[in-house]
Amino acid sequence: MAVAKASAMPLISKLYCSSSQVVLVVRRRPHVVNGGGFVVTDCSQKVVFRIDGCGVLGTKGELVLRDGNGDALLLIRRKGGMVEALSIHKRWKGYTFDYEGSQKLVFTLKEPRSSCLAKNNAIRIATEPKGSSFEIKGYFPDRNCSIIDSIGNIVAQIGVKKEVDELMASKDLYHVVVNPGIDQAFVFGVISVLDYIYGESTRC
């Protein structure tokens, strides 16, 4: 499987598109509050993103991705209502905020109804306004999966380094490799939804 090329693909901000491959570390927040979310740091342990789950926000089916300063970058909501009950797929929608505070749709993630039970059900993501498409390959709870684009290039890989895996029986610490030109904020917006779908740190 090929690695995505280095041409910048800013969905949230070009500030999060690096010209080189980036390895970031995800740490779950302490289990004081269910749905507390997780923190993303770089190799120097500087906080790059924070993800607030429903335990912090007080609203189920809602997530917020913040930058290292705590400013909101993405609001992610699970679509609800009667349409949801009749749909084969559950849908998550990610929104950015403009300077006036209004929301702009950036991506939609489709989650198969039985994705919590089956490893082979594809999870697909469509971006706005360009309409690029992505898919999750692998199984997130095993910390062994990738985000790939429509032609099969790897955008980001989620995994656990062997030395970390040997030290920790849990999956509270794992790494994400984001390839050049890919919007890291978009990647972690997708990861926060995967975390919620599989009932982990962001879910109450």
Describe what you observe in this structure:
With 204 residues, this protein is mainly beta. The protein has one domain: LURP1-related (Porin). It has 4 helices and 12 strands; from the N terminus they run E-E-E-H-E-E-H-E-E-E-E-E-E-H-E-H. A 12-stranded antiparallel beta barrel has the order 1-2-3-4-5-6-7-8-9-10-11-12. Strand 8 and strand 9 form a beta hairpin. The protein starts with 21 loop residues before the first strand and ends in a 7-residue tail after the last helix. About 2% of the residues have low confidence.
In summary, what is this structure?
The protein has helices at residues 54-57, 82-86, 162-167, 184-197; strands spanning 22-28, 38-41, 47-52, 62-67, 72-78, 89-97, 103-112, 123-127, 133-139, 144-149, 154-159, 173-178.
Topology (SSEs and partners):
Elements: E1 22-28, E2 38-41, E3 47-52, H1 54-57, E4 62-67, E5 72-78, H2 82-86, E6 89-97, E7 103-112, E8 123-127, E9 133-139, E10 144-149, E11 154-159, H3 162-167, E12 173-178, H4 184-197
Antiparallel strand pairs: 1-2, 1-12, 2-3, 3-4, 4-5, 5-6, 6-7, 7-8, 8-9, 9-10, 10-11, 11-12
Family: Belongs to the LOR family.
Pfam families: LOR
InterPro entries: LOR, LOR_sf, Tubby-like_C
